[in-house]
Amino acid sequence: MTDSPQQQPTPQPQQQPYAAAPPPAYGAPANAPVPGRTLGIVALVLSFFIQLVALILGIVALVQSRKAGASNGPAIAAIIISSILIVIGIILLVLFFIFGAALFGGLAAACAELGPGTHTLEGGGTITCG
Fold this sequence. Notes:
The protein is mainly α. It has helices at 37-46, 51-67, 73-114, and strands spanning 117-120, 126-129. The protein is built from 3 helices and 2 strands. It has a two-stranded antiparallel ribbon. A hairpin with a 5-residue loop joins strand 1 (117-120) and strand 2 (126-129). Helix 1 (37-46) runs antiparallel to helix 2, helix 1 (37-46) packs parallel to helix 3 and helix 2 (51-67) runs antiparallel to helix 3. The chain is rod-shaped, with a radius of gyration of 40 Å. The termini are far apart. The relative contact order is 0.10.
């Protein structure tokens, strides 16, 4: 047998520990939800059915978005649509009362002229005056 010197393992270089993670970035993440965006969409949908509630929700959503420095198109659209439909509703309500009062006034005048009882009109209708 031959004498061979024992082979010494070659030393491995020491691994350096991992560096510390960098500090987190300041500010909101790039894909953070815009405050008031969902409320603006709800207001937009409601603006076709319940205008006053939609107007209030749209204003609240717009204020929340503006505080966060973001724009909110659905909230602006809800405010505009709700405002227009409220004005149209008020105009129609006023017209309804004007024509309703004129119709009722004409009916009251006909009953005053004809007296109490049931009367047949020339057009085929009947009026009952009490």
